[in-house]
Every structure is written in C-alpha cells, then in structure tokens.
Amino acid sequence: MELEKHTHLGKATEYPEEYSPSWLTPIPRAKSRETLGLSDAPDFVGEDLWNGYELSWLNSKGKPEVALGVFRIRCDSLNIIESKSFKLYLNSFNQSRFASREEVQALMQKDLSAAAEGEVSVTLLSARDWRDEPSFWQAAENLDSLDIEVEVYTPDASLLPDPVGDDVVEETLSSDLLKSNCPVTGQPDWATLYIHYRGKPLDKAALLKYIVSMRSHQDFHEHCVESVYLALMQRYQPEKLAVYARYTRRGGLDINPLRSNYPLPADNFKLPRQ
C-alpha cells in the first residue's frame, strides 16, 4: 500500500471545523517494523507522547475554549496516527459545541484509542496549567561538541564498533543533531535524541556519527527511534537501554517517542526548539 494514496500528507486540504473522527488516518506499525526485522511483537516497551498546541472548541454558549493536549499512545498499539490527519481531527473541534472540557477529553480518548487500536490517554490543560515534568533526561551529556568527520548520511549500524573490555557504566547521552525525513513528503524532521543505558561503554564519537547517519533516512518519528534502539540493543546488549526523541513542532503538534527495555514514562518537558 502506497502511503501517499491513503494519507493527507502532501495534499491540499480544506481544514474542517465540524467535529468528525473520520479525519484520523491510522497506519499499521507492522509496515515499518518489518523493515527492522520485527515480525512478531517487539520486546521493547514505551509510548509516543504527542503535544497539541492548537486546540479549541465552543462551549455550550458558543464561547471558544482553548487548551493544550497531551496524548500518550502506547507503542504496543497496532497503529500510529498519521500526523496531518491528527491535526485535521483536532481542527474539527473548532466550531463544534461541547458541554465541558471533560466531554472533549473523553471523546478524544475514545476516538484516538479506536484509531490506534490500543490504549491512548488524553489530558487537556489550560496554558496556565502547563508545567514541565522534572526529568533526568535534561542532565544528559551532550555529544555535539565532539570533533568528528562525517561521510555517511544513511543509517549504518556498522559505524558502531564492537564493545571493548568488561567495564560497565550507566550514563545518559544526548544530541541535537538527529534529522530524519517524512516518508511521504520528504520534509525534514528535527529532534534532540536521548540515550540512557547501563552496560559496556559506548564509543561516543562513533555514536554521534551513527546519529548523524540518520540524516537522509525516510521514516516516521516512531520508527526512527525504534531503529536506533534496535541498532544499539543488537550491537551492545546493554542491561538497560532507553531511547527518547523530542521532535520539533510541526502543524501545532510535536511527537516524542520513547522505547526502552524497562518500564519508563516519557517525561514531558519542552526544549528550546519545541
């Protein structure tokens, strides 16, 4: 199935103003996971954390309400939700009347869970209610000052050398240099990538080269993170591994996928580029 024929991406679209869940376009996770060698249920856990910044509806008297939406989609759901369709769905609330914020929240949770074919949680906040969640990710060691020479801009796990020695470390690393591209439109997607692990030490320069090698890769945000996670797990077999990407906003939405081999919530905090 060609994605271009089944999504709103790259197409001129008249934005809706009357509520309808029909705008949501699910895309099976299995399609991209097959290219990663994942034919069965993956052995990682995690979630896709979406933040929606352009959300509004009318109250029962016709007065507009606005909110920030926090949407958490479990990675074991059968589908991801195509981002433009998500935007169109949220816009469909703009001129529709609802009795309360709780009604809107419950309706979104029902619609999104049905589209994802898995559990989706929805929290609607006023701008005054938003608070960054405290997170250990923000204390990560950033790798971007390393003076590396780069020649590869397509994903290449061979850039990661075999582990050396028996030392075990636990550390959190980050890079602002992750870039991938939409598989339908080719538009660039930008992110800060975080990696937390406990195991044999990673070669930091080689890791940064590998992150940069994603630069011309075309895939959805969720599967780019899964690609990095699997490359590190297969090469190093760490005791603990978590990979988290905070992507920049597009169309009033940012997408932040987390994959790990142990239970870990996707802490929600905003970076300068978000």
Can you describe what's shown?
With 274 residues, the chain is of the alpha+beta class. Helix content is 21%, strand content 29%. The protein is built from five helices and ten strands; from the N terminus they run E-H-E-E-E-H-H-E-E-E-E-H-H-E-E. It has helices spanning 29-35, 83-91, 101-116, 204-212, 221-236, and strands spanning 26-28, 45-58, 64-74, 79-81, 120-125, 141-142, 169-181, 188-199, 240-247, 253-260. The strands form two sheets. Strands 5-3-2-10-9-8-7-6 form an eight-stranded mixed β-sheet. Strand 7 (169-181) and strand 8 (188-199) form a beta hairpin. The longest helix has 16 residues, at 101-116. The relative contact order is 0.19. The mean pLDDT is 93.
List the SSEs and their pairings:
Blueprint: E1 26-28, H1 29-35, E2 45-58, E3 64-74, E4 79-81, H2 83-91, H3 101-116, E5 120-125, E6 141-142, E7 169-181, E8 188-199, H4 204-212, H5 221-236, E9 240-247, E10 253-260
Parallel strand pairs: 6-7
Antiparallel strand pairs: 1-4, 2-3, 2-10, 3-5, 7-8, 8-9, 9-10
Biggest beta sheet summary: 8 strands, mixed
- The average pLDDT is 93
Give the H and E element order.
EHEEEHHEEEEHHEE
Helix content: 10-25%
Termini separation: 32 Å
Tertiary shape: elongated
Strand order of the largest sheet: 5-3-2-10-9-8-7-6
Strand share of the residues? 25-35%
What is the count of β-strands?
A: 10
What's this entry about, in short?
This protein is an alpha+beta fold and 274 residues long. The protein has helices at 29-35, 83-91, 101-116, 204-212, 221-236, and strands at residues 26-28, 45-58, 64-74, 79-81, 120-125, 141-142, 169-181, 188-199, 240-247, 253-260. Strands 5-3-2-10-9-8-7-6 form an 8-stranded mixed beta sheet.
